[in-house]
Amino acid sequence: MKKLLAVFLSVAMVLSLAACGGDSGSDKKDTKAADATQAAGDTKAAEDTKAANESGSAASGDTIKIGLMVSFTGSGVQAGEECQALAKIFEDIINNKHDGVSLPFAADEGLPGLGGAKIEFVVGDQSTADIALSEAERLITEEGVIGLCGNFSSATTKTAMVAAEKYGVPVISEGTSMSLTEAAYTYFGRSFPGDDVFIDDSFSYLDHLNETQNAEIKTICLISEDSEFGTNIAKVEAEAAAAHGYDVIENISYNKDATNVTSEVLRAKQANADVVMMSSYAADALLFMQEFKTQDYFPKMLFGQRGGFMASDFAINLKNDADYVLTTSRWNADMDNAAAQEIAKLFKDDMGVVLLGDALTSVWDGVLLAVAANQAGSTDGDAMRAVMAEGLDLDPALDPFGLEGYKYPEKHGQNEFGKAIVLQYKGGELGTVYPEGSAELMYPAKGWNER
């Protein structure tokens, strides 16, 4: 099958500067009047858009649009291409009849609860927080999307939520910061765990290894990039380590745009902790791996928290040098259910690479938005959010994640049934090691010269 190309949008930004002629009372009144007019216009636009969203169910044959937020620049470009390719696969599955396929709506043509309406993923850029805000608003007001999903970070989720709350449009994002569930958004949902669960499960796995394999893991070194992603994770990791009885003997923070991490790796090497836990993006994760090899250092266990360790670029660039690295995840291609195996094969046939959990969750959340609209019989944001709170009616046999369900309570929006898994690279590919995974843990890790 052909490889789908990424769609790159060009975002034009026009900056106007108003000349200031003095500090007269007249100027102040004019400025105040202009601001009031603008505010009134923004409020009216939001009300008009929300009213349009509340206008009723899609008519038979209509196409409903779902916003898919991905990065067009930076280290997230590869992930963006994969998300767009996967979105096309799900569009085909939902919009056309596919007998014998164990995925949602494959037995139908379109969404039966909306008169057979088709779906279309419309792509928006979330390369930065500022861009995510303007693109989310564009998708809602100009494209008419019924909801937003995508390869969000916590920071880009927060800005996209400004537009979502303004116009009453649901967002399902896997940004993991606990601040997202603490914000009491009306239209926010998260299908899988936040940092707290991922990290607690990481330390529970270390407990399991100490109890069942006499691993004698006692000391931890934290290495975290210094944006919201890494800073939040480092804080929660330090708290979880203390709660589980581990000693954090080094806590290293670095700039995610760094081009040299020699000193950071030297600090980790000198600390010689039993486990190095990292939170990094794709480019910096690769930079650290290269420097680990240069300094001939590899800890007994190197444990990533998704991010760059779950990017296709990681295994593609490192190949077998990725071996022994662990990471938390939401899904893996070795999951033993028909839905998981079918979507993994469809993606591999199309893109030629293994489907990773972060790409699947980014687009699967869009499928869940379609499930919500179908169940509500309406594209109205409030109606969709209501059924999300009640619980989505999704046959577990059609769920590649094998979750017990999807229920997003009001106020925090965290799905009650989300769960985490732990993976390890072997032969350049990921295998599930916990809980009850198909792969056997390789521990302790071998040094570079022993492989």
Head-to-tail CA distance between termini: 36 Å
The number of helical segments is: 13
Mean pLDDT: 89
SS class: alpha/beta
Q: What is the helical fraction, as a range of percent?
A: 40-55%
Biggest β-sheet: strands ordered side by side in the sheet: 7-6-8-9-10-11-12
Task: Give the total of beta strands.
Answer: 12
In short:
With 451 residues, this protein is α/β, with parallel strands linked by helices. Helix content is 43%, strand content 14%.
Description:
This protein has helices at residues 25-53, 77-95, 129-143, 154-167, 178-182, 195-213, 228-244, 262-271, 282-294, 312-318, 338-351, 357-376, 381-390, and strands at 63-70, 118-125, 148-150, 171-172, 188-189, 219-225, 247-254, 275-279, 301-304, 325-329, 421-426, 429-434. β6 (219-225), α7 and β7 (247-254) form a beta-alpha-beta unit. 49% of the residues are buried. α2 (77-95) packs parallel to α12 (357-376). The protein is globular and about 65 Å long. The protein has a 7-stranded mixed beta sheet, sandwiched between helices. It has a 3-stranded parallel beta sheet with strand order 2-1-3. The chain has a two-stranded parallel sheet with strand order 4-5. It contains 13 helices and 12 strands. It has 451 residues and is α/β, with parallel strands linked by helices.
